[in-house]
Amino acid sequence: MRKIPIAWLQLSYQKVRFLTASLGIAAAITLMFLQLGLLGALDESNIILHQNLRGDLVMLSKETEALVIAKDFSRRRLNQVLNFSEVQSVAPLYFNQRNFKNVRQGRIRAIAIFGINPHQSPLDFPTIDQQIEQITTPDVVLFDQNSRPEYGTIAEDFAAGRESLVEVNEQRMKIGGIIDFTGTSFGITGNLVMSDTTFLRLSPEKNAETIALGVIFLADQINPEQTAQQLQAQLPDDVNILTIEQFIAKEKRYWQETTAVGFIFQMGVIVGFLIGMYIVYQILYTDISDHIPDYAILKAKGYQNNYFWGVLLQEALILSVSSYIPGYLLSIALYKIVGAGTGLPIFMTQERALIVLSLTLFMCLFSGFLVTRKLKDSDPADLF
């Protein structure tokens, strides 16, 4: 009797119900995958620039919570760190958002603009380095090919050799090159990189002495964490000195904990988990109700509750596996669709696959455990 796959036979006896249950749980699994994927994209899309800074430390205003809402601070603070022997050089980064208009298509929308010193760029992007000479000419900018399609066919026009003219803050600019930059995020949909001189022409409310971010280059064999603490202690408290890792952690913390977006995605995972657990519970509970007479016969022959509990837990495992596989495959396809439609870096990772697998197993086994309590409360022998 113990060699007979009771759990599998009970589930597969009514094939339509088993298939419906598996698809229902797979939908809950897909929801968890989607929410975790969007949560991952929330992190990844907002830290691409942080991960590609050339320096060892960053300086930002004490009031800055995230790059997209960076508060400017005095460039004099950045120059002050040059007095320390541990510091080799510094590079400012200007940031703003301006109105953008594609001259060919006439549509106006906001775009992020980054101003850098072409002779000492703080950005470590190969396509920017290759075309850095272009932005030494006034009113010439580099366009991010990963920007949203709504900005027009700028990359295609440039590749075809057609002159690309755009308006930024109602000032005519020429596209001098196409770069592979940060792309879209939850706060930015398009990017332009330009010289600090051009940036200041497009941002008359700003001046050369106020910057959004300062990048600090340390001498060789200098510990960044210790130096950050030393500089922080010596400078006024209107700026923060962070390592690149701390800067990345700060950005993630803002999007996950401070904004509603991060909370919504986290709640989506919880909702998917609860929906899946409810479906599994209902399936197993219905299965017990349908087979109470069969359990009564087996119990009369000497089978104990432990045996029935084992059968239910096996059913829970079967449901988890039969649901996880289609949920996993559907999520991969969904990631590709969402990524293509939004430009967000959403993709399947081994870590995420293991997290959802663990949640699925726990969801099914815990539901099975709850159902076994019902089995214990109702003695099948009383119905026999």
Shape: elongated
Total individual domains = 2
Q: In order across it, which strands form the biggest sheet?
A: 3-4-8-5-7-6
**Secondary structure: helix percent:** 40-55%
Secondary structure: number of strands:
11
Major beta sheet summary: 6 strands, mixed, barrel
CA(first)-CA(last) distance:
20 Å
Strand content: 15-25%
Q: Would you list the SSEs in sequence order as H and E?
A: HHHEEHEEHEHEEEHEEHEHHHHH
What integer is the average pLDDT?
87
Structural class, from secondary structure content? alpha+beta
Our Rg estimate from Cα atoms comes to: 29 Å
Uncertain segments: none
What is the overall number of helices? Answer: 13
Secondary structure topology:
Layout: H1 6-13, H2 15-46, H3 48-51, E1 57-61, E2 73-74, H4 75-80, E3 87-102, E4 108-116, H5 126-130, E5 140-144, H6 154-159, E6 165-168, E7 171-179, E8 191-195, H7 196-202, E9 210-211, E10 213-218, H8 224-234, E11 239-243, H9 244-258, H10 260-290, H11 292-300, H12 305-342, H13 350-377
Parallel strand pairs: 4-8, 5-7
Antiparallel strand pairs: 1-10, 1-11, 2-9, 3-4, 3-6, 3-10, 5-8, 6-7
Brief rundown of the structure:
By secondary structure, the protein is of the alpha+beta class. It has 13 helices and 11 strands.
